[in-house]
Amino acid sequence: MSEKVIGLTKKLQGLQYDLKAPKGQKNKFGNYNYRSAEDILEALKPLLVKYNVTLLCSDRIEMRGAFMFNVTTASLLDCESDTQINTENWAMHSESKKGMDSAQISGSTASYSLKRALGNLFAIDNEKDADATNRHDVPKVNINPSLVIEEINNTTSIQQLASIWKLLPKAVASMQEVIDAKDKQKQKLGEK
């Protein structure tokens, strides 16, 4: 590892130690506090100056089979060298969510993806956060199983099948018809 990378890694270590990202948001329905991406960014700003680093975040949309994902990259750049450390987080983009228009769905997916990318980069624990405990408004998965089965049937390798399976929401991966299609395709691909 180069001295520049070691230097940035030490800065990140100090930043992770010093960062206190409060749970500044309150969910009145579930009666719990949680932190937003904005809470994390606000807590980070003075530390970025202190450690002479800057943060850049970017989003892109990627399709994986029939599923759309918001992919957020959080990059910590050292202002004294040309080194950077990156993390990436994927959040599945829902087709619909009760009470939200398409722009709000995209915004909430991007915000969640950013929050998780920042959490990964800055070692923010997520102890009993709303993401882990919220069960009062579990969204219904609006994914047509026949589209998933079609994607499974179109795989040409075990690796491709595994990568599709890994991205499926649990609610879809637990559907018997989807499991049967996966098992059948796995057997078919294993015979090639």
3D structure, described in words:
It is a single chain. β4 (67-78) and β5 form a beta hairpin. α5 runs parallel beside α8 (176-191). The chain has helices at 3-18, 37-50, 102-121, 130-133, 145-153, 158-167, 170-173, 176-191; strands spanning 25-27, 32-34, 53-64, 67-78, 84-92. A three-stranded antiparallel sheet has the order 3-4-5. A two-stranded antiparallel sheet has the order 1-2. By secondary structure, it is an alpha+beta fold. The chain contains eight helices and five strands. The longest helix is centred in the middle third of the chain and has 20 residues, at 102-121.
Task: Set down the secondary structure blueprint.
Elements: H1 3-18, E1 25-27, E2 32-34, H2 37-50, E3 53-64, E4 67-78, E5 84-92, H3 102-121, H4 130-133, H5 145-153, H6 158-167, H7 170-173, H8 176-191
Helix pairs in contact: 2-3, 5-8
